[in-house]
Fold these 2 entries.
Entry 1:
Amino acid sequence: MPPTTFLAHLGLSRKLRAHGKDPLSRSAMANYRSTFIGTEPEEPGPLPRSRSAPCLGYAMPEASDAKLQEETLAEYVQQLSDRSQALQPLANPPELIEPEVPQDTLPATGHEMPASKAASVGSKGHPHFCCGPCRHFFRGECSWGGACSRCHVCQEEAKLDKRQRQLVASMDRGICLKMLATVMEAYATKYRRTDVLGFVHFLRRDT
């Protein structure tokens, strides 16, 4: 092999190695221009096609579920409105009857009432100014007796749960005031509270 040819091959091998290519590889393309030996960049081959990500087993909630929940809440609110219509006062209300006083609030005659049945200190001012019902008394477990700071006459009131509070909060303002006015009117009529009746008329005017 002539020295010039050997030197040319040696220079080409060094250039290919400098570019990180194997001089024996068929993909390494060399050229000779104006006494300079160079390499041509390889044409990039087709990129591999990416595969779709596998399903992780998580499904987004369907829109039909949210719509069904909304329809259920709307139906419940409509039922409340229908019930309030059924509670409307009659055109000719019946004669007022004085509420009966519970027997456990009457004073003892001839013998003392048991301590668990006696009116407690917290029962004074019942029903408007007492200290709230005693839970232990209605379970028969109040050991304070007459010295209890809670009311032994009031009945424990039912409280709304979380779902019911959310429904009331989302209720239309006019429907809510209408229901409140109906309940307050029944209370004021039963206990002859003319001051409350005036407030009820004010509520009905706003609705």
Note: DSSP finds six helices and two strands in the chain.
Entry 2:
Amino acid sequence: TLGFLFGALHEHFVGHDRGALGKIGGILFAWGIATLGLALIRHQINFSTNPILYVYVGLLIGGIALLLVAEGPMGLMGLMEIVSHVLSYTRLIGILLASVILAVIFNVIAGGFFGRGTPLWILLGLGLLLVGQTFNTILGVFEPGIQGARLIFVEHFSKYYHGNGRGFTPLRSNRQYTEPSTDPPLSSDPATP
């Protein structure tokens, strides 16, 4: 939502009001998908007992309408991108849920070792708990962080950030000990050696 909001503001400030309308349509469509999905999970898809469903469907239809007005039929292709972004964020929930299940599995297996009662099995159970839970903690810290960073750079920034500046050239000094490549430069920046 925040990425689409920044994108709508960016489009408005550069004079593309139809583009801003399309970004707002993306927000409405994403919220419509998310709220209808949650209602479906909770088995609340009955319009007579749950009148808020009209709002959810209105968000969905309003988002599609704004995308069609702003971008024409090509706006419908953007709907799949929005759905994929919503599903990408739900992947974080799956990763965290897998971490919890992995912890339970290590606990159950170690509990079976402890139930045997002999010192050797108890030591094996303690070793399994120590190694397994340490591995699970490391995985639980790094994997959602990596996925979250990927989501920010791919899904969030793609809504409003357009990198159209100069190519990054950190070493602007003349070469003394190496020869420049004969391949053409990757960027169109004349300062690129």
Note: Residues 2-159 form one domain.
